[in-house]
Write a structure and sequence with these properties.
Blueprint: H1 16-30, E1 33-35, E2 38-41, H2 44-57, H3 60-111, H4 113-174
Length: about 180
C-alpha cells in the first residue's frame, strides 16, 4: 500500500500505517492455504510481525483515551460518594433547621397577644368555674344541713310522742 494512499474515511489521528498493516493482515488471511473455505495455515512469523507493527502504530490518543476513561470513571465514583455524603448531611441539616423553626414558631405563638389574651381568658373561665363549683358545694352543704336539722326536729317530735305513748301505757297499766 502506498504511504500516500487514502485511508477510507478513517479518523485523522489514526496513522495510515495502521490501515496498511490491517490490509496486510487481510491479505495474509486471503492468501493462506485453504481447504473448504477454511484457512489451514498462516505464516505465524509474518502474522506476529504485522500485529507488532499495529501495536507500535496505535495512536497515543487511544492510550490517552483509555487512561482518561479510567480517570473519568474514578472521578464519577468519587462524585457519587461525595454526592451521597452531601445529601445525607443536607438531610440532617434540613431536619435540624425544621426543628429549630418549630421551636421558634412555638415561642412566637406563645408570645403573641392573641395567645396571651386566650390564656388570660382561659384563666378567668377556670376561676369562674371554680367559684361556681364552690358556690354549688356551699349551697348543697346548706341544703343538706337544713334537711338534717328538719329531720332531727322530726325525729325529736317522734321521740317525744313515743315517750308520751310509753308513759301513757305505764299509767294505764298502773291503774
Amino acid at each position: 500500500m502506498d504511504p500516500n494512499e487514502e485511508t477510507h474515511g478513517a479518523p485523522p489521528d489514526v496513522p495510515a500505517e495502521v490501515y496498511r498493516t490491517l490490509d496486510s493482515l487481510e491479505d495474509l488471511a486471503d492468501f493462506a492455504r485453504q481447504r473448504f473455505g477454511h484457512a489451514l495455515s498462516i505464516p505465524l512469523d509474518e502474522f506476529h510481525s504485522l500485529v507488532d507493527r499495529l501495536r507500535a502504530n496505535l495512536p497515543v490518543n487511544i492510550t490517552k483515551a483509555e487512561h482518561l476513561a479510567l480517570r473519568a470513571q474514578e472521578t464519577l465514583e468519587e462524585a457519587r460518594a461525595k454526592s451521597a455524603t452531601t445529601a445525607s448531611d443536607a438531610q440532617r441539616e434540613m431536619e435540624r433547621i425544621a426543628e429549630d423553626a418549630q421551636k421558634q414558631a412555638a415561642a412566637l405563638i406563645a408570645e403573641s397577644p392573641e395567645v396571651r389574651f386566650a390564656n388570660a381568658q382561659s384563666r378567668d373561665i377556670i376561676a369562674q368555674a371554680q367559684q361556681a363549683a364552690l358556690n354549688v358545694r356551699q349551697d348543697v352543704d346548706a341544703y343538706a344541713r337544713e334537711t338534717m336539722e328538719r329531720l332531727e326536729e322530726y325525729v325529736a317530735r317522734l321521740q317525744n310522742q313515743v315517750r308520751s305513748g310509753i308513759v301513757a301505757l305505764e299509767r294505764d297499766k298502773a291503774k
